[in-house]
Amino acid sequence: MVRVALVQTSTPASQQAALDHTRPLIVEAAEGADFVLLPECANLMEQRRELKAGKLASEGDDVFVQGVRQLARDLKTPILVGSVIIKAENSEKSANRSLMIDAAGEITARYDKVHLFDADTPDGKSYRESATMRPGTEAVVAETPWGGLGLSICYDVRFAYLYRTLARRDVGMISVPAAFTVPTGKAHWEVMLRARAIETGAFVLAPAQGGAHEDGRHTWGHSLVVGPWGEVIAALDHDRPAVLRAELDLSEVVKARQALPQLLHDRELLA
Rounded mean pLDDT of the chain? Predict the structure, then answer.
């Protein structure tokens, strides 16, 4: 049994403020948990382009990253930082990067968001992540004491082939940290997460940003955990900062894949 704690935040627009906001939630989450997960953009929620560039730091210099690494050491608890917005290496653009931090505070896996959110949402807002971000190019599995954890971020959830790729690598858990917009969250958040769990036969862990942010954005919240048969086993029904807890029986992954051996039936199709 794996005891997980998902941290839902309303992250502010600077790394130090984000650390100050998140630290007590991480400490609360680690009490009685084997593994803590944070949402997307955990270090910085800043969509104002004229302000964002001056705030970005490299992974090694980001005070939020270093603060969470120290917390992992102090609490002796692995922490998945759902994502941080940092300066990309060898690029003028930023990276939206998920970091797996072990109980010794070491970064053991990195995943850069592959699918960037370029969309005009039903509330009239426009998002162009590709204007400032460099996309990742590979699927990543983080090794944990409980087996492989497939990494993804927010908009990735709309691209089923990524999750199929992770499932073929025998992961029992998949993380989907997010900062979903309210219109798309209301319509699609739960149904897509349940679909990803069903088609992979894995637990889906989705810690989310929620509420009103300094930069004017409003995110959906409603963090949740889905079991490998597609059932919601834990969920928040609001967008406020909070901790969501669940216990994962990883034998359920084996049962789901034996009952529906869909991963054995993939076929290559002609274009």
Answer: 95
Radius of gyration of the chain (CA): 17
Q: What are phi and psi of 149, to 5 degrees?
A: -120, 115
Closest CA to 133 of 153, 114, 109: 114
CATH 3.30.70.2570 assigned to 2-261: no
Active site residue 154: yes
Task: Please identify which of the residues 41, 46, 129, 154 carries the catalytic annotation.
Answer: 154
Please check whether residue 38 is in contact with residue 27, taking contact to mean a CB–CB distance below 8 angstroms: no
- d(C-alpha 209, C-alpha 233), whole Å: 19
Establish whether 55 is a catalytic residue. no
Active site residue 40: yes
**CA–CA dist 7, 98 (Å, integer):** 15
- From 41, 113, 129, 252, active-site residue: 113
The one catalytic residue among 40, 46, 129, 252? 40
Residue pLDDT, tens place only, 152-211: 999 999 999 999 999 999 999 999 999 999 999 999 999 999 999 999 999 999 999 999
For the question of whether the overall pTM of this predicted structure is more than 0.90, the answer is yes
